Amino acid sequence: MTSRPRIAIIIGSTRPTRLADKPAQWMLKQAQARDDMDVEIVDLRDYDLPFFDEMASNLWMPSQNPEAIRWQETIGRFDGYVFVVAEYNHSITGALKNALDQAYKEWNRKPFTAIAYGGVGGSRAVEHLRGIATELQMVSTRSAVHIGGGDFMAIMPRGGNRPIEDIETNLLPSAKAALDELVWWAKATMAAKVAEA
Question: Element (H or E) spanning 41, and its range?
């Protein structure tokens, strides 16, 4: 099997004043510099998802909402994911939780990592994401990128509003580790699916 994993960088915040675009674009640049994956941004702003209101998860029956179906079709095309995670009150955003709930089969047996930000680097939100993803039968990398403390204050709009490249020396080792692990797991899960077929 020679095909490169298709990876989506999912922007998990929809606020007009979000910080998410800086880390998303930076992570896209890191991933595009590699030759072992194909990557693109998937922005939750581009999906007008209702709050989950289906009869059941699409594990049990097909969804009815056309936008939920479009979302499922989009994420189903990918072999792995990088979630851009803003920490809201010690957890992930409501928009990201709703997007996760809008699909089930499409997430199954696929790996993910995260680039997270907040006062303590979004670590509490990533831990919540990992718990949710386990129920969705996803595989978490050990490594993730965390932007916290002074680095977070330096790049946030209400702080220093500096470019993320000003702090990237602190982020590059964890980004490399996270992407290395993501590709390994993506190739492993892709191969396992082929063997099952």
Answer: strand 38-43
